[in-house]
């Protein structure tokens, strides 16, 4: 295949991925709707209804439970297919360059890889931690980020800049993206913890009612952060400075990207320290985790929007708004 064909394959794969994840999102919505209707009938059946009506309602509930299970499995299957196709899209980006390279030479590719890692980690932990309740959140998040990336971050495939042509780029970025995936899932669990805690006993019979207990959400968030923190530490404080030394002849330069990566490290260090020493659990810990996720994604994307031009990490800066409008207009006219 030629470089152009590889790039076209990547573009088509990402388009297919968006559709597949959207269908997975819809499948999970149907699953939760069926479960909600089933649970809503329980108080009615427990009242003074006619026996024949109760049996009919029981048959209907059984059908809804089966339908929910089918759509749930279908949603997970679609998510797996989406992850595979997204990997093909990433592979196409790397193979389209001359010479071939890793698929994270710009912000668009970073986002593609980061969302892929979030989905893969979710699938790997799906059975162990019974994460069916997290499916709509993960698929909805991934669809939204991919749409924003396609609209505002897309760039043509190009060779790596000289600063990126180093084995330490692979080590640094792989570690950073793995940690980003773990922190993102942990942040989602922390947000849902606050939602569940606020709802209290008045959870009804919808999505919130089927989430784990606040204690279980708190434990899951802690485990994900405990896994991600040493990986982020290695990426930011070890691999990153070594790469910077080879690329720019200095280990640390207080670049905007480096400063916010360190701020993110401090926030997550505070989270784990508070859990270990002060016994902070629940709401306080969840708030720190959410602040950490905000600093993480601001460092991941926001820095490149606001400080990309003055940063030595400017290779990751997105295209200007005018360039985005011009590209979208050109695509519309060609179609």
Automatic annotation (TrEMBL):
Keyword Transmembrane listed: yes
Keyword Transmembrane applies: yes
Keywords: Cytochrome c-type biogenesis, Membrane, Transmembrane, Transmembrane helix
Pfam families: Cytochrom_C_asm (PF01578)
Cytochrome c assembly protein domain ranges (all copies): 104-306
GO biological process: cytochrome complex assembly
Record's GO cellular component terms: plasma membrane
Transmembrane segments: 12-35, 74-95, 107-124, 131-149, 169-195, 224-246, 258-274, 286-307
InterPro entries with a match to the protein in the record: Cyt_c_assembly, Cyt_c_biogenesis_CcsA, Cyt_c_biogenesis_CcsA/CcmC
Bilayer topology annotation: Multi-pass membrane protein
GO molecular function annotations of the record: heme binding
Location(s), subcellular: Membrane
This protein's name: C-type cytochrome biogenesis protein CcsB
Organism: Nocardioides guangzhouensis
């Amino acid at each position: 295949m030629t470089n152009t064909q590889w790039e076209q394959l990547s573009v088509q794969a990402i388009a297919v991925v968006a559709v597949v994840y959207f269908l997975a999102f819809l499948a999970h919505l149907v699953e939760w709707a069926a479960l909600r209707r089933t649970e809503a009938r329980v108080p009615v059946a427990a009242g003074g209804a006619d026996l024949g009506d109760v049996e009919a309602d029981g048959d209907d509930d059984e059908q809804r439970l089966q339908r929910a299970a089918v759509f749930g499995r279908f949603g997970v299957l679609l998510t797996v297919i989406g992850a595979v196709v997204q990997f093909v899209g990433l592979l196409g980006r790397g193979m389209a360059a001359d010479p071939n390279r890793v698929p994270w030479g710009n912000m668009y590719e970073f986002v593609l890889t980061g969302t892929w890692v979030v989905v893969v980690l979710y699938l790997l932990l799906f059975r162990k931690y019974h994460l069916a309740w997290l499916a709509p959140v993960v698929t909805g998040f991934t669809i939204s980020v991919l749409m924003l990336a396609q609209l505002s971050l897309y760039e043509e495939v190009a060779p790596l800049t000289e600063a990126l042509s180093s084995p330490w780029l692979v080590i640094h970025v792989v570690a950073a993206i793995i940690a980003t995936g773990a922190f993102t899932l942990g942040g989602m669990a922390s947000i849902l913890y606050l939602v569940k805690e606020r709802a209290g006993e008045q959870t009804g019979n919808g999505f919130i009612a089927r989430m784990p207990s606040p204690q279980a959400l708190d434990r899951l968030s802690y485990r994900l952060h405990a896994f991600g923190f040493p990986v982020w530490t290695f990426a930011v404080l070890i691999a990153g400075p070594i790469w910077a030394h080879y690329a720019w002849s200095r280990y640390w330069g207080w670049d905007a990207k480096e400063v916010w990566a360190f701020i993110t490290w401090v926030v997550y260090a505070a989270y784990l320290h508070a859990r270990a020493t002060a016994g902070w659990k629940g709401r306080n810990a969840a708030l720190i985790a959410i602040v950490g996720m905000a600093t993480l994604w601001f460092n991941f994307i926001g820095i490149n929007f606001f400080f990309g031009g003055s940063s030595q990490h400017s290779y990751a800066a997105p295209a200007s708004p005018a360039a985005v409008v011009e590209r979208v207009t050109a695509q519309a006219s060609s179609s």
